[in-house]
Amino acid sequence: MSNTTPKSLVEEILQLREQLHYHNYRYYVLDDPDIPDGEYDRLFQRLKTLEDAHPNEITLDSPTQRVGGVPLKSFQPAQHGQLMLSLDNAFSPHDMAAFNHRVQDRLGQKKEITYICEPKLDGIAINLFYEDGLLIRGATRGDGAIGEDITQNIRTIASIPLKLNGTDWPKKFEVRGEVYMPKADFLALNHLAQAQRKKPFANPRNAAAGSLRQLDAKVTASRKLTMYCYGVGLVEKGTLADKHDEILRQLGNWGFRVNKDIRVVKGLKGCEDYYDQLGKKRQDLPYDIDGIVYKVNEVALQNQLGYVTRAPRWAIARKFPAKEALTLLKGVDFQVGRTGVITPVARLEPVFISGVTVSNATLHNMDEISRLDIRVGDTVVIHRAGDVIPKITGVILSRRPKKTAIIKLPQKCPVCSSEIERDTNEAAAKCTGGLYCSAQKKEAIKHFTSRKALNVDGLGNKLIEQLVDRELVCTIADLYRLSVEQVAQLERMGVKSANNLIAALDASKKTTLERFIYGLGIYEVGEATARSLVAHYHTLDAIISADIQALQCVDDIGPIVAAHIETFFRQTHNREVIASLINQGVQWPEHHANSASLTIKPLKGEVWVLTGTLQNMTRDMAKAKLLQLGAKVTGSVSVKTSMVLAGEKAGSKLIKAKKLGITIMSEEEFQQHLTHWGI
């Protein structure tokens, strides 16, 4: 420590470092923090402030020094003090039995061997070198003898201690571990990559490997990497426990993360039981594993068994059934989802993965097909995880034949032959036959009869499911052809309930053009857009006849939404369903220019809030009139609120409005204003 720094500050710096090391250990190793994040941040910022003011006091083990400042030009080689060995693999109970027999035979004993069982993380093996309790170097495995020096990146991983706890560690020693990216963080990273139009990682292992090999440590620091330790290498001037599980316990006490699912078992039966138990919970683990590592637990027996080539005789990796396999892409079918989204599905040469024969896999969308550069006839990599639908994760370009077929999005829906549309800014392609397409009919009916559309009271989702499944309703127009007798035969429906539903359907025929347009379910046409269309065109025929250029003259409608509207009404099937609805008696009052589209908007720029129960109109009706007058209607009171329309039993919104001094209007006053404005 420098003599120029006051002793009190030197002591505070040392104390802050010890506190932060302790809290890092509690958070990352024990998963049991005992202070809030805000308090940790306060301690960290205090230490950083002191070190910035007194740079001579900065040491490499300080928690503030995890991220280096200058990117590297390349990685340098790093020699391991002791070889990082590979493991032989076992793929079946027979292989495990043979391994156990070899161990017993070489040791000359028939009694059951004690094994330690460790989840085999699908990550990146690393070697950490410590001297006098401080992290000196971190390296990749490489060829087992020499790896790459990635110390600058290793230091960014918060679960790897820069300084060890306690004092009983060897003077020099190596710790081996697996760096990985948790599943949740991998999904978040890929979600961000897709949002930024960047290529996503194929799996968490690739993400961890790519993050560790960044020349700029700041990039590594931005990725959520962590580590579990699983053993040691070189040990000088110090002693470790004589059993492997006890060595791991020592490492845990010194500040390293040790997997909580590690178990010590007796004999082959114990190994098989552990394999079954971990296999059942594999999909629920927060990280990827591809098997289990079994090790003879007693270090003396490990030494007696020794090594063969570059693998220890005292350990073996039992692999889970493969989650990936290669097969041939024979063709691509396009399926239509319930919301009209078109999904390409690969037809594969059947292949056995994880105990299941896979013959189909999702290709998600056309962007994914382009990203993979996949063609019919390619040899592809199929990935299956648990019960998740198998997907194609890669193409073996070296096996691509001379003749392959490029995959193209069909121009017509494979179910109803309506046009398929796809925005240039969106990955999904959609069928435009929403009112007719049988793949979408349930969702179309649910939307059309919802509260903000035709508002059919008593027609719930389960009832809609029955009507469609029994083929009583194929399009929304069929709702108005239902009879009491047909409805009464459905589950949990009697004559009285059937009569109520038919009455509700009859009542829904009298609606507004805004609700009708909204209920058609045109892509990206919500309530506000439906109101704008009606205010501008006044009649359904005028809206149907408008082209893309004309539609863009409507307030808040741009080229994309205009294209959706024009394409929807261009479909013959959709127009036929609309005509059928009108023939069944669905109607709305005529809209006139002087009422539906005021040339002067007296409330333009004002913000209104509705609260309480209105007696002579619904709140939706009041909202529609306010919007027609140019006001913006919001759901909460703030300093930006211009007026609050309060009905009976108004609650917290009214109280807040009074506190803020906002003008309150009664329903009677509101109706007087409407008369004045000619509405």
Quick overview:
With 679 residues, the chain is α+β, with helices and mostly antiparallel strands.
Structure description:
The structure is a single chain. This protein has 679 residues and is α+β, with helices and mostly antiparallel strands. 37% of the residues lie in helices and 21% in strands. It is built from 25 helices and 26 strands. Strands 14, 15, 16, 18, 19, 21 and 22 form a seven-stranded antiparallel sheet that branches. A five-stranded mixed sheet has the order 2-13-10-3-9. Strand 23 (607-611), helix 23 and strand 24 form a beta-alpha-beta unit. Helix 1 (7-29) runs antiparallel to helix 2, helix 12 crosses helix 13 (461-469) and helix 16 crosses helix 17. It is globular. The chain starts with 6 loop residues before the first helix and ends with a helix. 31% of the residues are buried. Mean pLDDT is 86; it is low at 592-597.
- Name the structural class: alpha+beta
Contiguous runs where pLDDT drops below 50 for at least 5 residues? 592-597
Helix content: 25-40%
Question: Shape, please?
Answer: globular
